[in-house]
């Protein structure tokens, strides 16, 4: 019998960004029928699906409570509602740091709190956000504009992160390492996006310049360690995660550091991966069904 799987998007992107174009045929090849639906579409019975996969739910930042309530209502959600609850607030980076994972230095500035500005260039971003929307880069003498941006986020009731800007990103970008079912699949680079960023037509994410990548052993090792730390914090196994993406940069000390761990709705870079990547993902979906 053919399994029924729903990929969850949002009203602006009900069929995703197009990155999963090759995934439908790969799923069909392993006996899985794919459908797309906006996560908040009241006419869709998500509970009837064999599996519901978070893929392009990028409007959640505007109404995270509603989104998490919906996640809780879907018993076959992947990644799970518990994962989404932890991963959709970037304080998870501090949890990873406490677990010994090297991260880009991060300060969480709660509403009403005053920040400690880094000495050099830095980034201010919402603690709940997707697609780099609301993230802005400031120079060392731009504390005034940065304070205005922070105040605007706080006025909306949004906590913020402050991170020193990692200059190596300008030369080499971020490296995103992708895992399916806890197993490494492929990697791609993302060029620097915080200089005059352009929003996609949906307004939900900053358009990215992507390319295939072959990460070195230090980046691979950090990504593996990050995944191990995350599942330990969540009380899961790596196989419980249908997908994961670890974004790594080279820090000011020359060592790799985690910028983001994406476990909820990341782009997975199929267009930059080898042709077998969609089938690896399809096999991971089948693994979740069993």
Automatic annotation (TrEMBL):
InterPro entries: ATP-grasp, DcsG_Biosynth_Enzyme. Transmembrane segments: none annotated. SUPFAM superfamilies: Glutathione synthetase ATP-binding domain-like (SSF56059). Keywords: ATP-binding, Nucleotide-binding. GO terms for molecular function: ATP binding; metal ion binding. Residues 93-290 form the ATP-grasp domain. This is ATP-grasp domain-containing protein. The lineage of its organism: Bacteria, Bacillati, Actinomycetota, Actinomycetes, Pseudonocardiales. It comes from Saccharomonospora viridis (strain ATCC 15386 / DSM 43017 / JCM 3036 / CCUG 5913 / NBRC 12207 / NCIMB 9602 / P101) (Thermoactinomyces viridis).
């Amino acid at each position: 019998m053919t399994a029924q799987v729903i990929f969850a998007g949002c009203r602006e992107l009900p069929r995703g960004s197009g990155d999963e174009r090759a995934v439908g045929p790969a799923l069909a090849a392993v006996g899985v029928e794919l459908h797309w639906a906006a996560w908040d579409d009241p006419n869709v019975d998500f509970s009837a699906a064999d599996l519901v996969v978070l893929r392009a739910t990028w409007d959640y930042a505007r109404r995270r409570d509603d989104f998490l309530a919906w996640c809780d209502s879907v018993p076959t959600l992947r990644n799970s509602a518990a994962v989404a609850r932890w991963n959709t607030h970037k304080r998870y980076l501090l949890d990873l740091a406490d677990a010994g994972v090297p991260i880009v230095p991060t300060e969480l500035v709660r509403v009403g709190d005053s920040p400690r500005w880094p000495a050099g260039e830095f980034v201010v971003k919402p603690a709940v956000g997707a697609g780099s929307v609301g993230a802005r880069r400031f120079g060392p003498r731009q504390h005034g504009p940065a304070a205005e941006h922070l105040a605007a986020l706080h006025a909306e009731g949004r906590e913020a992160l402050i991170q020193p800007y990692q200059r190596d990103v300008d030369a080499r970008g971020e490296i995103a390492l992708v895992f399916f079912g806890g197993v490494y699949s492929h990697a791609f680079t993302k060029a620097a996006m915080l200089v005059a960023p352009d929003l996609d037509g949906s307004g939900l994410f900053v358009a990215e310049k992507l390319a295939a990548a072959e990460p070195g052993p230090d980046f691979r090792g950090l990504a593996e360690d990050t995944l191990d730390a995350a599942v330990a914090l969540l009380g899961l196994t790596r196989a419980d995660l249908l997908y994961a993406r670890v974004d790594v940069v080279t820090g000011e000390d020359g060592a790799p550091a985690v910028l983001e761990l994406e476990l909820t709705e990341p782009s997975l870079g199929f267009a930059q991966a080898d042709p077998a990547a969609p089938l690896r993902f399809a096999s991971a979906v089948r693994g979740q069904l069993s």
